[in-house]
Amino acid sequence: MSEQSRLMLVVSPLMENSPAFDRAAALAKASGAALHIVAFDYLEGLATASMVNEQALEQMRLGYVERHRQWLEEQARPLRKIGVQVTTEVVWVERPLQEILIHLKEQPMAALIKALEYESPLSRLMFTPLDIHLLRECPVPLHFVSHVQHALPRKIVAAVDPFHCAGQYKSFNDRILHEAAKLASTCNATLDVIYAHDLSSISADEFGFDNASAFFSSGTAKTLFDAQGDAFRELAERNGIPPERQHMIMGNPTKVLSSYADAYDIDVIVMGRVGHRDIGRLIGSTVEHLLYKMPCSVWVVSPEELAE
Q1: DSSP string for residues in 29-94
Q2: Distances (CA, A) of 242 to 154, 230, 239, 247
Q3: Phi, psi (5° rounding) for residue 137?
Q4: What angle do CA 35, 131, 191 make, to 5 degrees?
Q5: What would the pLDDT profile of 89-108 be if each residue is shown by its tens digit?
Q6: Which domains does the chain have, with CATH numbers?
Q7: What are the two backbone dihedrals, phi and then psi, of residue 91, each rounded to the nearest 5 degrees?
Q8: According to the model, what pLDDT value does residue 219 have?
Q9: What gap in Å lies between CA 78 and CA 89, rounded to an integer?
């Protein structure tokens, strides 16, 4: 992050603090970036209050927005005292996604930071939460903060997948490692790299086999595993990752990454994502599945060629 970069922290409309405040402040301080804190307010009860006097209702809305603005300024004051350049903003809007995307287009940010809002599986089936929308559409690195042990991360893991049939994402692994290394350098944190190798996700017909049993009994599976091990080591070495920081683990990526993060007290896992049409197959496809299961915060990177 450059000294001129800016971080955007999206906060709750309920005037409540969260670990995301501490994480955003720590990252801004460590990187020398400015911090823009914005709240997209909309309270259903207040917005639809059954009052005859529309002018009085509007005054209530304006009053709430002003109180929230003052509250944000109170949170910003101690950050300014430690040298962080902070600006605050409150916007009354029912659907914040488009406003967030407009903000990011009009005010380029180095990253968007937000507390992860837990949603039950049933709720996610009924409607798509804001966090998932952001995961799919945010054009800048997106940091979902949860389970914070340290305001400034100490242990960071980058999740990569050197196996791609589409050349469109050939350099994406390097981009993920570049972003992870930059974050680790900013935080003076350790950086490990994991490749969760899951043969069960590979389609047999991609390699000219009529069925999966022929694929696995042919010895192609072992050959592929060895080849991907070589590709993973070459990728890691190309990006300056020492052998002791490289981990290739067989298994379902969701289980491998969550178990590793829990076992080694990881603060942040850096992952890639692609267009959600390819969910379940390409690099970063496990992000949506992992988001609510990880025992640490998640830093999501999108390919430059897919970002608008």
Answers
A1: HHHT-EEEEEEEE--HHHHT---S-HHHHHHHHHHHHHHHHHHHHHHHHHHHHTT--EEEEEEE-S
A2: 18, 14, 9, 11
A3: -120, -15
A4: 65
A5: 999 888 899 999 999 999 88
A6: 1-115 (3.40.50.12370), 127-308 (3.40.50.12370)
A7: -125, 130
A8: 67
A9: 17
For 215-232, the DSSP string reads HHHTTHHHHHHHHHHHHH
| Model pLDDT, residue 2 | 45
Picking from 207, 195, 203, 117, the residue whose alpha carbon sits closest to that of residue 160 is 195
Position of tokens 């070589």?
230
For residue 257, what pLDDT is reported? 93
Strand partners, 158: 193, 270
In angstroms, the CA 286 to CA 143 distance is 16
- Lookup: tokens for 69: 């603005």
Task: Quote the CA–CA distance of 53 and 218 in Å, as a whole number.
Answer: 77
CA-closest candidate to residue 261, choices 270, 269, 253, 252: 269
Among residues of the chain, what percentage have pLDDT more than 90? Answer: 52
Judged against a pLDDT cut of 70, whether residue 166 lies above it is answered with: no
**For residue 194, is pLDDT > 90?**
yes
Nearest by Cα to 37 from 88, 107, 113, 101: 88
List C-alpha distances in Å: 304 to 6, 89, 136, 168, 298.
Answer: 18, 28, 14, 11, 19
Q: How far apart are CA 283 and CA 195, in angstroms?
A: 11
| pLDDT at site 53 | 62
- Res. 29: pLDDT tops 50: yes
Sheet with 86-92, side-by-side order of all strands: 86-92, 34-41, 6-11, 111-115, 142-145, 297-301, 268-272, 155-159, 190-197, 246-250
